[in-house]
Amino acid sequence: MNHPPTIAQVTNHDGVRYERRWVQCGKSACTRCPHGPYWYAVVATLDRRTTVYVGRRLVYLTEERVRAIRIGHQIDYDQEGRRR
Ligand SMILES: [Zn+2]
Q1: Of 30, 14, 12, whose CA–CA distance to 3 is shortest?
Q2: Rg (CA), the chain
Q3: CA angle 69, 70, 76 (to 5 degrees)
Q4: How far is the CA of 71 from the centre of ligand 1 (A)?
Q5: b/e for 15-42, b at 16 or more Cβ within 10 A?
């Protein structure tokens, strides 16, 4: 089941929206919900939005990565923003 996250903080950088979220994992036996808060980047494209997990610390996506997301290429990056 998909629970909507609670958004604790929002900031914008270079046209990308960054949301700090408390996340419900949806496991019925979980006693630690909500999890986080974790930062997510929300990148808008023409017809949809792509949400990318950032982590506990806010690190802005590189311009290259934002461009790749906008044209629909999902490239795998590590936490430092380097291509795997
Ligand atoms: Zn949980």
Answers
A1: 30
A2: 14
A3: 10
A4: 33
A5: ebebbbbebbeeeeeeeeeeebbbbbbe
In this predicted model, what pLDDT tens digit does every residue of 6-45 receive, in sequence order?
999 999 999 999 999 999 999 999 999 999 999 999 998 7
Q: For position 74, what pLDDT does the model report? A: 56
Q: The tokens 């790749």 sit on which residue?
A: 68
> CB neighbours (10 Å) of residue 61?
20
Distance 28 CA to ligand 1 centre (A): 8
Give the model's confidence band at 46: pLDDT under 50 very low, under 70 low, under 90 confident, else very high: confident
Cα of 36 vs centre of ligand 1, distance in Å, is: 10
State how far Cα 65 lies from the chain centre.
13
Six-digit token string for 81: 């923003």
